[in-house]
## 1
Amino acid sequence: MIRLMRAGDIDYGLLELPDLAEMTELLATVFSRFDPPAVAAGLSFKELLEIIRGYGKRAPHDGLTMIARCQSSSKLVGAMLTDDFASPPPEDLGYLLTSNFAPIVALLEDLDNRYRMVCPAPPGKILHLFMLGVDPDFGGRGIARTLVQLALDNGKRKGYEKAVTEATGNVSQHIFRGTGFVEQFRIPYHGFQFQGEFTFRSIVDHEAIILLERNLTID
């Protein structure tokens, strides 16, 4: 980790290569247990581990992903996997498209394409806050919000003009709105079909996946 700040017992900073495996495991654990589309689609920890490895392998070189580590235990307790919105999907995405993951990709592509129709995304202009996760034992300490804000500050320093995220549940939507993001598009879970199936109909406590945007040129 390239440490940027400390708050209490938590160090925050940019992800480096030695942190990658631990970040991947943390996000796979959190998303397999709590992410509404992942749970509804039946994505296992093992499947998510492979998916996040595919999407996260560029993160140490991009210099955009933030992590949080407990100083006393040295345990990684939070991560904000971040990339460029113009970045292509992983080269091995076809391999990652398990039957459980395919509907989620379709959902994300539908949402992102609606945004790209009105806001083209050249490289280096739009920051993509992709996967946010915090160890449940460290919840309620403001770690998620701090990770988001650090990612935004870092992106602004690198010349990004906007940031976007696809927030899948009530908690993440609240966090992103609290850091200045504004809703642009949404897709209700109950009405989304993939290959004739209502894959996300079982999601009842969360209304929709929402694409939110934050302008980084305005303080």
## 2
Amino acid sequence: MRLAAYPRFPLVTGPTPLQRASRLEQALGPKSPRIYIKRDDLTGLAYGGNKARKLEYLVADALKQGATVLVTEGVTQSNHARMTAAAAVLAGLKCVLILDARNGADEQGNLLLDRMLGADVRIVAGRDERIAAMKTIGEELRSAGEIPYVIPTGGSVPLGSLGYVYGVIELESQFFELGEVPKRVYFPNGSEGTLAGIVAAAKVLDVSWQPLPVAVEGNAADMVRGAMPIISGTLELLGTSRTVESCEITIEEGFTGEGYGIPTEAGLEAIRLLAQTEAIFLDPVYTGKAMSALISHIRSGVFTPDESVVFIHTGGTPSLFVNPGLILESL
């Protein structure tokens, strides 16, 4: 596996902890398996989160290419945009963020942090306008004498997905130290980059556990189609002859609710439960929905008490502060 051949720009404080959630287990009752939480909300970059792992590889590549400015896109409360702006600060680069306001554009949460980090924030009305702006931003910046490095939504390209190949190697080492062989590893899925890295690593390392991404928008079939080129590209970068077929990927799609960024009752319950049992904060966009899937599966008897399961906490804490009313009503 050629992972060591790709440079990383240091952004992650790791290895991130793998913590036993024993109080959550007690709250879920005698059906609960052993629950572990991989704390990638503690990666250390600007409130942490999974995007730091991807950005280590992407920023290193940007510097190698002589870039002067990082450019990326997302919604106004994008965790990826916030972390890209933070990575740009540490790498001595400028940053342009193209953000769409379909879920609002209040100057709080991630958007407030983007401004504090000094990013050039350009807010457009919706996804179509964002795509159009991304098509022209490179030419604009080059005309101004800059060398742009464009990062797609979520850093979801094969090079970025190497971050979660590294993350799975880290996780496997922690399993070995604990003497655990989990049945499943749950994590939120939006732009497929984290999924691609975890699935590719699981294949190359021949792990015994099932990766179970939980969709926060869209449908599973579309997500699998979107993930396949990223997975294939990641495996190619690793120099392996192993392949992943679409039929090998299972995405849980029953917990998305009405759409991206729209909280669900089950997700809000998960947020309350984790805060009041483990003092861990989930968010309503990603981790709350993913944890609600795990909780539902435990309650329905998918696991036995002698099994173990892992939840990867991918961050997203700043979005808690965007809709405090909904959070308070759920307590």
## 3
Amino acid sequence: MQPVFRFAPSPNGFLHAGHAYSALLNAALARQAGGRLLLRIEDIDTIRCRQELVDAVFEDLDWLGLTYEQPVLRQSTQFDRYRAVLSGLADQGLVYPCFCSRKAIRAAAGAEGASDPDGAPLYPGLCRGLSPSQRQEAMAAGAPFCWRLDMERALARCGGAITGWSEWGEGLVPARPEMWGDVILGRKETPTSYHLAVVLDDALQGITDIARGRDLYYATSVHRLLQTLLGLPAPRYRHHPLLRDDAGEKLAKSRHSTPIRTLRAEGISAAALRRRLGFV
């Protein structure tokens, strides 16, 4: 099978050098493997992902000299597909509506409560035991909610069949999705989360190899669980180091790291940036 790689940015801000590194790495790996490179726009956040930012992704990648196959998949066009899968999980009793605010979760977890791998308080299951009538009443009243995966039921459904994932340079890494607790798979307004959308779209596009930032390493456990539950293939993974600034902090949109378009405006050439990132 011909290897298929993808670069999948979220247009909730302008791309920075860390995105350029990931995009160029995927292109280089696809070229070395005689494979294909796809671009996917992960714009499920319809509030922050504006069209001008989507246009900027194309501009930045064109400036870098990146080529990829057409058409480009946009997740915002796939909501019906996500909704159908989420509904199927609900019918199986594998997801449930949660009406808890972040403040309520923090309070219930307490100062000494467990945290997930990202450092957020581990959800204590406050809504897991609500009766069907209580759930229907809250939803009918218009209460905001999200859909959470019942981790215990999901693991039981898989029956120990989660085999971990193949990580470049490490071999087989055991999957430990229980570290994340009852993760969010969708919301009232948006019928998916990153976790659900990414595994569905990787399968839809036939992605065989995923090269992405190290910050998503532990999330791969959740993705392997969902792939197992949904009968989806398991790609090979390569989690690359994150680029950091002079202070040692990772480059991030939330930290207002210098965008590629700013580097371009300052007169830095695409060739110079590629060399700086280790690509000639």
## 4
Amino acid sequence: MALDRYQLLGAAFIAFGVLVAPYSYVVLLSVPLTSLGLACVILGATLLMVPGSPMPAHQIRALIESSLVNIEAMLEEYDAEGKAVYLPPNDDHVHTFVPLMRDVDLGVFDASRMPLRVVTEHRGVKGLMLYPPGAEAVRLSLLPEEVGAEDALSHVLVDFLEAVASVKAVEKGREVVVELAGPRAGTEYPRVNRCLGSYPVSVAGCVLAKVYGAPVRYAGEETREGRTLGFYEVKRLG
């Protein structure tokens, strides 16, 4: 069984302490160095007992994917076709608006005025207000307040969910391209894929809405040789 980063660090501290403490006590006759060695052993043992995650990443991914079943059913029921717009957190939760029949100009969105009803209408555009599973991942990951887009994406998708091997984000004006290398899970729900993006791409949309504090529209995705590219449009950057 592979050790996580805390366990590896703990093992290193123990190995260092086990070597330093006896040598310092018998050969160097140094009480401070002996104490340092013993302290390293105690710290290492403590790190070995620290869980890498309060909830295993594979269980979190399973919960997220299972919740997509209901979203797929909702999108099918209302025959939703538009690309999702991920909205910045409201009461610590990201929501997404999926137009039923067409996409809407991102500039008309006012996230603070959107009613939180499942079937709703915003400035003449009918759609579904959904609670994407990636929103809970963002909340549970304890994402720092002051963090850039790429660091935030890596924190949630790589460190917390372990859904991809690595993440890169490139900003081009209002557009953001997210490259997800080595995705470890896909989404076998065609309507979800078309409207919200596949599982890791949808989570990335939630992270971007949180980081930018502005509506983020999913514009599509491509898969190239073990990489997935997610394309997004942000109402405003900064």
